[in-house]
Amino acid sequence: MKKLSLIILGLFFFNANADEKVLTIASDPWCPFSCEKGAENEGLAIDLVRAAFEPLGYKIEYKVVTFLRSLEELKQGNVDMVCAVDDTLDQSYFIRGKESFSPSNFSYFTHTGTQFKYNEKNEDSFKGYLIGVNGGDSLKGLLLDSIGSYIDKNLDDKTKIQKVYGENVHTQLIQLLNSGRVDLYIDTAQVAQYYIKKSGLEDKILMGPPITKAIDEYIGFSPAKANAKELMDLFDKRMVEMKKDGTYLNILAKYGLKNN
Q1: How far apart are CA 74 and CA 82, in angstroms?
Q2: pTM, 2 dp
Q3: Which domains does the chain have, with CATH numbers?
Q4: For the chain, first and last CA: distance in Å?
């Protein structure tokens, strides 16, 4: 009888796990949008995905990898979602809905001891300066004015542009700048500001003006998953609802972000 009870109990848990709807979202550390796994605040996008799907019976698993790997896993169908995608990226890796979770923009950052002066009309202002960039960013054709044309021409020249890769790329760029191994670096403004503050270097690193137009950021869904469009449409619907009922604004406020 005891053995039979254990078998029945085992079948119950097997069926419960089989019925559980699990969705996996992957991202690199890109705080305040996607932060540390298991932290009290895992990031704006992660919180929004949880708020959208968990009330509907889904379990959300958050996986931290490099951004390039997250796109590959999304394209292959190994994960359901990625934070974040936008229209500057190769569209074959994902599908996305209509509802952006936040805008972003790029800026450049310099050390207080650097004599660099940006001339938006003259590429000569970059001569003699080594620029750090995130190797995973699609910068060609994205940046405005002279910094855009300079980066487009020299992105593969290691004597002028230093590409940085890895899960902690934003912290690496800050450390390179602070140690004088690069003279300025380019990064997503909202993300760089978070990591500069976390590093305690707010008085040593200066942010320049925006060097891109506002970029709408989205949750990307896997084109290899049969239910991707259904999930995408559901997320769009829930985003509209959360913007109406105050959930979206409350989550924004947790990260010191404003509704733009």
Answers
A1: 7
A2: 0.86
A3: 2-103+217-254 (3.40.190.10), 106-210 (3.40.190.10)
A4: 63
